Amino acid sequence: MQLNSSCGLCGNVEITHYHQDKRRHYWQCECCQLVFVGESERVSPQQEKAIYDSHQNELDDEGYRRFLSRVADPLLARITEPATGLDFGCGPGPLLAHMLTEAGHKMSVYDLYYANDPAVLTGQYDFITCTEVIEHIAQPKRILNQLFSLLKPGAPLVLMTKLVMDKTRFATWHYKNDLTHISFFSRKTFAYVAQIYGSDIEFIGNDVIILTKPEVPYAPSEEIL
Questions:
Q1: Nearest CA to 200 among 189, 211, 190?
Q2: Residue 10 lies in a domain
Q3: DSSP character for 136?
Q4: Do the domain assignments include residue 4?
Q5: Residue pLDDT, tens place only, 67-100
């Protein structure tokens, strides 16, 4: 079986079949190691939003607050107030932005479905958070390009997403069962991303990744592109 498509992260066309379950096929890029779902097996935007609408993420949910503290705590340790931040993909309940506002920072929010304000994507930010978002993106290179362009030099991009470990564990991995999850990153994939943007990279726990934009402009080589 072959996929007539290119990788949404690096554009490579050398794609191999990675896994199949009852609902979808999963493919892996031989260059950046991104695992992804082909376009024909992705849900529609209407179906995607319906799934998001079913999520219960309220501002007063203490369990959700503890979950997001895995992003907020390491971020707050790396920035000084008052800083200006963007929560990209905030969802219907922007609790993380609320938590960071409580900590003294000025926050903007953006979400394709719930806070679609293009004006916030024209500023410059001291930090950007992107929690449980990148796995929903079909063309992650486009989004990462956009986010890095919004960061000030030396500013962190903090992502949260579960990481691919290997084929054996992927087969029973609950994370792939969400039909809105279509792009799956590993440590190797994020190492590729860090190389592309010349950023420092930190892995915190099992699912938090901090990519820090270089202080000086970075021009990747043609081999990387």
A1: 211
A2: no
A3: G
A4: no
A5: 999 999 999 999 987 999 999 999 988 999 999 9
Stretch 120-126: mean pLDDT, rounded? 96
Which amino acid would we find at residue 17? H
What is the per-residue pLDDT across 187-225, written as a single tens digit (0 to 9) for each? 999 999 999 999 999 999 999 999 999 998 766 644 444
Q: Which CATH number is 90's domain given?
A: 3.40.50.150
The residue type at 65: R
Residue 2 forms part of a structural domain: no
Q: Is the pTM of this model over 0.70?
A: yes
Task: Provide the residue range defining the domain that includes 69.
Answer: 15-212
Residue 176: half-sphere exposure toward Cβ, Cα within 13 Å = 25
Q: What is the 3-state secondary structure (H, E, C) of 47-85?
A: HHHHHHHCCCCCCCCHHHHHHHHHHHHHHHCCCCCCCEE
Q: How many domains does the chain have?
A: 1
Tokens 């219960």 locate to: 56
Angle at 33 between CA 28 and CA 34, to 5 degrees: 65
Going by C-beta distance under 8 Å and a sequence separation of 6 or more, which residues neighbour residue 21?
A: 171, 176, 177
